[in-house]
Amino acid sequence: MSTLAPLRLLREPWNASEGNQSNATAGAGGASCQGLDIPNELFLTLGLVSLVENVLVVAAILKNRNLHSPMYYFICCLAVSDMLVSVSNLLETLFMLLMEHGVLVIHTSVIRHLDNVIDMLICSSVVSSLSFLGVIAVDRYITIFYALRYHSIMTLQRAVVTMASVWLASTVSSTVFITYYRSNAILLCLIGFFLFMLVLMLVLYIHMFALACHHLRSISSQQKKPTVYRTSSLKGAVTLTILLGVFFVCWGPFFFHLILIVTCPTNPFCTCFFSYFNLFLILIICNSVVDPLIYAFRSQELRRTLREVVLCSW
């Protein structure tokens, strides 16, 4: 899949001169680094699946008044962010397919403007998606550790301010990235943002898991049922592993790619890693497919509303 302007330059780092790039590529080729050719149809299919899933999540939350709470508003915003990932991917893929088959002929200046619009969508969706994953983690932390004060801490007004701030920051940061995408400082900011979100989620979810284990241990010791404690702890560990594992597997390779661009743009190993850029994009799109399964569809109330939405649509 051909990537657009700044994303294409992420795959082929600007830090190296053409001579160094060719030498690195040759070195990588000597090491039998073939990269991975991913068909446009796969991008299109995953984008459509993600779009349908997240549209259903948004529709279900808007339909059911019982879901009109800060927690579900954050999940709704995450779904919208994932929809932006899907829409930008679908637009890019469709334009590439149409141009490759000669169906669509566009002037170079129009393509350049189209590149910028789609890249802004992609960058904004990446930042907002990561941000709302962090916001959801904080919201769940407050729910568990400050349960009695939750509604006074996470008021609707504060939730609205949080959501507006995330969308504004995502829009501004994507504009800055498109404008200064050749700067290593921009990449370092993106990498730092990802690491911050990773550490935040690790600390919060592990702390929540530790508290849950402590409560289960107390209950099982009082009832003298260690089997219940072990079973519940295992389920909690599995849930925690899924949450953090999906986040790291889907986002980690892309940001490791950015780290290598900054640190070793001409190294043969790094150049070989760059050739798998499309795979990293696929993983990000897969994250948009998996997010509704982890954060939305596990809610019984939302699943019930979802069935109503699907049945009404038929």
UniProtKB/TrEMBL annotation:
An MF annotation (GO) of this entry: melanocyte-stimulating hormone receptor activity
Top-level taxon of the source organism: Eukaryota
Classification via Pfam families: 7tm_1
Principal place of residence: membrane
Domain G-protein coupled receptors family 1 profile, chain residue ranges per copy: 53-295
Keywords: Cell membrane, G-protein coupled receptor, Glycoprotein, Membrane, Receptor, Transducer, Transmembrane, Transmembrane helix
GO biological process: regulation of gene expression
Topological relation to the membrane, as annotated: Multi-pass membrane protein
InterPro entries named in the record: GPCR_Rhodpsn, GPCR_Rhodpsn_7TM, Melcrt_ACTH_rcpt, MSH_rcpt
Stretches that traverse the bilayer: 42-62, 71-97, 117-138, 159-179, 185-213, 234-261, 273-297
Annotated compartments: Cell membrane
Family designation: Belongs to the G-protein coupled receptor 1 family.
PANTHER family (UniProt xref): G-PROTEIN COUPLED RECEPTOR (PTHR22750)
Function noted in UniProt: Receptor for MSH (alpha, beta and gamma) and ACTH. The activity of this receptor is mediated by G proteins which activate adenylate cyclase.
Protein name, as recorded: Melanocyte-stimulating hormone receptor
Organism encoding this protein: Dromaius novaehollandiae
